[in-house]
Amino acid sequence: MKLYDYELSGNCWKVRFLLHALGLPWETRQMNFHPGREHKAEWFVERLNPLGQLPVLEDGDFVLRDAQAILVYLASRYDTGRSWYPDDVRWRGEIQLWLATADEITRTASAARLHDAFGFEGEIEACRRGARAVFRVLDDHLAERQAAGRRWLVGEHATLADLACFPYAELAPEGGIALDEFPALRTWLRDFRHRPGFVGMPGMIAPVS
Ligand SMILES: N[C@@H](CCC(=O)N[C@@H](CS)C(=O)NCC(=O)O)C(=O)O
User: Whose CA is nearest to atom 16 of ligand 1?
Assistant: First the structure.
């Protein structure tokens, strides 16, 4: 398996996390995302992702783009314990909802981070506003769950829903989005960081166990 990867990308991080969690061997093709913009190179766009985005996974001759799609594929194919993407159809429906939410977090919080930390252009205030709106939805949901004694977005244990939403919520302060007004979200982030087997990202302070 080969992952077209960028170390500082939250979407690549979630895929690396699952590859580690499932104990799968893989090789990495480090892409010069910044400043090289290698994800927009002709060879990459023509052969791997017409959208010019990371991550992309190759599993033999199977090529898949989009972090959420890759998570579903890896969990469905390789998670023999059916833990990350449980078979229960209602849970799957709910997980799908949070996978779509993760994309909304990328569109807003990740764009704000790219603006602040990488100097990308963009409507920074609109991105921050959008991120706060989606974090409000997450925080309200998690507050209800926590009041009922549950820690995770869906079901009884961490699933792809949590993994998909985690990275760009964790990295939101790098885009100038403070998380003080989202206490349930911050509790959930802490709980996820402290799960056994947590895999961090370069530059991140390791969780104290
Ligand atoms: N829906 C896609 C979004 C991927 C995405 O936005 N990737 C970023 C890196 S984290 C990227 O390649 N951005 C460059 C661009 O959109 O032009 C996914 O989840 O994989």
Answer: 53
Q: Is the pTM of this model over 0.90?
A: yes
Question: Which amino acid would we find at residue 166?
Answer: F
The residue segments making up the domain with residue 11 are 2-78
Looking at the fold, whether 131 and 73 belong to one and the same domain comes out as no
Query: Can you tell me which atom of ligand 1 is nearest the CA of 12?
Result: 10
Burial class (CB in 10 A: 0-12, 13-18, 19+), 75: buried
Ligand 1 center to residue 69 CA distance, Å? 13
The percentage of the chain sitting over the pLDDT mark of 90, rounded to a whole number, equals 96
Rounded CA-CA distance 80/101 in Å is 26
Tell me the per-residue pLDDT of 13-38, one tens digit each, with 9 for 90 and over: 999 999 999 999 999 999 999 999 99
Residues 45 and 112 grouped into a single domain: no
Q: Is residue 202 one of the residues assigned to a domain?
A: no
Look at residue 204 in the predicted model and tell me its pLDDT.
Answer: 72
**Do the domain assignments include residue 206?**
no
167 domain-assigned: yes
Q: What is the pLDDT of residue 164?
A: 98
